[in-house]
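Aim 2 progress update. The chain analyzed this quarter is reproduced below.
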Amino acid sequence: MIIMGIDPGFAITGYGIVKYEGNKFSVIDYGAVTTEASEKMPYRLLLLHDRLGEVIAQYKPDAISVEELFFNKNIKTALNVGHGRGVALLTAAQSGIPVFEYTPLQVKQSVVGYGRAEKAQIQQMVKILLNLPAIPKPDDVADALAVAICHGHSYRMERIKGC
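Predicted structure tokens:
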């Protein structure tokens, strides 16, 4: 199974493509879509849509997992991230590929085994689980890979329950 994880944002949206086979993960690709602050919002959103669409078309994942937005104290930042998340969800839905959403708590629980894990713990586990030489940067990329790992674990558990 090929899984695409997305950590949505406005300035930076992380993505990760992993293969999940035989209870093991391997990384296929990862990166970030970045937009310039000097650009107007509609063009930033269009760029995000186009780039995510290109990644989806290139790798043709079996599932796309997107991290849900957690409440942010800065309402303007939360709204901007929400716009980016909306574009990510729309782009994923347009592809016809099943889309799954996970809360930060679910991602932490799945990757680290503890729902209140620190960001550094998640990043270290992503590095270990994917056998990477270093923690992917920026943080949004490691988070996207964690969301993909979360879906792999969740998918596996659903299949076990269904047996």
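The CA atoms of residues 8 and 86 lie 9 Å apart. The chain is about 50% helix and 20% strand. These observations will guide the mutagenesis experiments scheduled for the next reporting period.
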